[in-house]
Amino acid sequence: DFIVADAERHPLPSAHFDWIQSRLGVMFFEDTAAAFSNLHRAARPGAGLRFIAWRGADENPFMTTAERAVGNALALPPRMAGAPG
């Protein structure tokens, strides 16, 4: 199955999936505990979980290239620690 849904709220079937994978999605969970709890409930025992997520802005210059390019031309809000960038 391939599902595009809100991992925090989607009524996933219980103990259904052998594998859960996310490419750059988990870093945008609003409530990580709720999302991972829902995914855990939907996973069969021994299921795999694999995901890719960017590191923080200070460790990933690519993520801030456009921001640095505009310099002070835009009034960007400050980054919030632990929030999506």
Describe the protein.
The chain is α+β, with helices and mostly antiparallel strands. 20% of the residues lie in helices and 20% in strands. It has two helices and two strands; from the N terminus they run E-H-E-H.
List keywords for this structure.
85 residues, alpha+beta, two-stranded parallel ribbon, 2 helices, 2 strands, elongated
Number of strands: 2
Strand content: 15-25%
Ranges with pLDDT <50 over ≥5 residues? none
How many helices? The count is 2
One letter per element, helices H and strands E, the order comes to: EHEH
Beginning-to-end CA distance, first to last residue:
30 Å
Roughly what is the average pLDDT, rounded to an integer? 87
Radius of gyration: 17 Å
Give a brief rundown of this model.
The protein has 85 residues and is of the alpha+beta class. It has two helices and two strands.
Please render the helix and strand layout as text.
Elements: E1 17-23, H1 32-42, E2 43-52, H2 65-70
Parallel strand pairs: 1-2
